[in-house]
């Protein structure tokens, strides 16, 4: 039986879960553009990030999800319901807390030393916020996200790590 490859993929998970890495891999493998939802929320400037208005954010998001093929990834779920609706495949990355914590510190060090470029300036305040958001996601947001995703069970895949790509 020939499986149909998904053309619209929505990846969600906590900070440090591996969303961006998985999106890049899938984008390369399927030849589909990927979009980081943080770059829909924020306008990146040389002087720092500026939050887009909800109208600008939603307009940009809707243009993405109404195109023929896309991979979107992010922690956002309240204003991205259209992405879940239109996705052929939804991937929830339910990565272990210890692994997320390791990835957060690794990203901080690698970007702070200049070996990798990031979307934001690495500061100790940002590092602390990443850990705070990861903890908050686990305790507060994750149950809410799972509840929201119940209606999409037929197209939902839960992965424990982004290296489980072969399960998709």
List the helices and strands and how they pair.
Layout: E1 8-13, H1 19-30, E2 34-36, H2 38-41, E3 42-45, E4 48-51, H3 54-65, E5 70-74, H4 81-86, E6 89-93, H5 97-112, H6 124-149, E7 156-159
Helix pairs in contact: 5-6
Summarize this structure as a short list of keywords or feature phrases:
168 residues; alpha/beta; Rossmann fold; 5-stranded parallel β-sheet; two-stranded antiparallel ribbon; 6 helices; globular
Write a brief structural summary.
This protein has helices at residues 19-30, 38-41, 54-65, 81-86, 97-112, 124-149, and strands at residues 8-13, 34-36, 42-45, 48-51, 70-74, 89-93, 156-159.
Please explain how this structure is put together.
This protein is α/β, with parallel strands linked by helices and 168 residues long. It has one domain (8-167): P-loop containing nucleotide triphosphate hydrolases (Rossmann fold). The protein is built from six helices and seven strands; from the N terminus they run E-H-E-H-E-E-H-E-H-E-H-H-E. Helix 5 (97-112) runs antiparallel to helix 6. The mean pLDDT is 89. Keywords: Kinase, Transferase. One of its GO terms (molecular function) is kinase activity. This is Adenylate kinase family enzyme.
CATH-defined fold name: Rossmann fold
- State the low-pLDDT regions, or none: none
Spatial ordering of strands, largest sheet: 2-5-1-6-7
Q: Output mean pLDDT.
A: 89
Name of the CATH architecture: 3-Layer(aba) Sandwich
Global outline:
globular
Beta-strand level of the residues, as a percent range?
15-25%
Please give the radius of gyration in angstroms.
16 Å
- What is the percent of helical residues? 40-55%
Secondary-structure-based class equals alpha/beta
Largest sheet: 5 strands, parallel
Within CATH, the superfamily carries the name P-loop containing nucleotide triphosphate hydrolases
Number of domains: 1
Count up the helices: 6
Instruction: Give the tally of β-strands.
Output: 7
Q: Termini separation (Å)?
A: 15 Å
